[in-house]
Design goal:
Distance between the termini: 50 Å
Structural class: mainly alpha
Strand content: under 5%
Number of helices: 2
Shape: elongated
Largest sheet: none
Helix content: 40-55%
Amino acid sequence: MITFMARQKKPTTNRTTRYLNEIVEALDKYAEDQMISSNAAVNKLLKDRLTELGYMQQN
């Protein structure tokens, strides 16, 4: 008898998120001021806030 293992799915890291227009405008200004991409700005802001809230460890 041949037994097959269920395929292990990798956790998804890509997400599609919709933002309010005022958040997009503020985010674009922040990214421009920091001279980073909008994606990098989102990651930085979320990481900083999640660290403040205790959901992530500081590096």
